[in-house]
Design a protein that fits this description.
Elements (H helix, E strand, L loop, with lengths): L1 H22 L3 H21 L1
Helix pairs in contact: 1-2
């Protein structure tokens, strides 16, 4: 289960980076996405 969370986190980070570099608009949305990913990874570590 932990590996799946890391895979999802990596995919989301890559998608965020592409979106950030391609459009570079809506900075607050990107910050919120990063915070959500970090919280998901931390929560996943606490469960296992």
């Amino acid at each position: 289960m932990g590996n799946l969370l890391y895979l999802v986190a990596v995919v989301l980070i890559i998608a965020w980076a592409v979106g950030f570099l391609a459009y570079n608009t809506g900075g607050i949305i990107h910050i919120l996405l990063v915070i959500a990913i970090l919280l998901s990874v931390i929560k996943g570590k606490n469960i296992t």
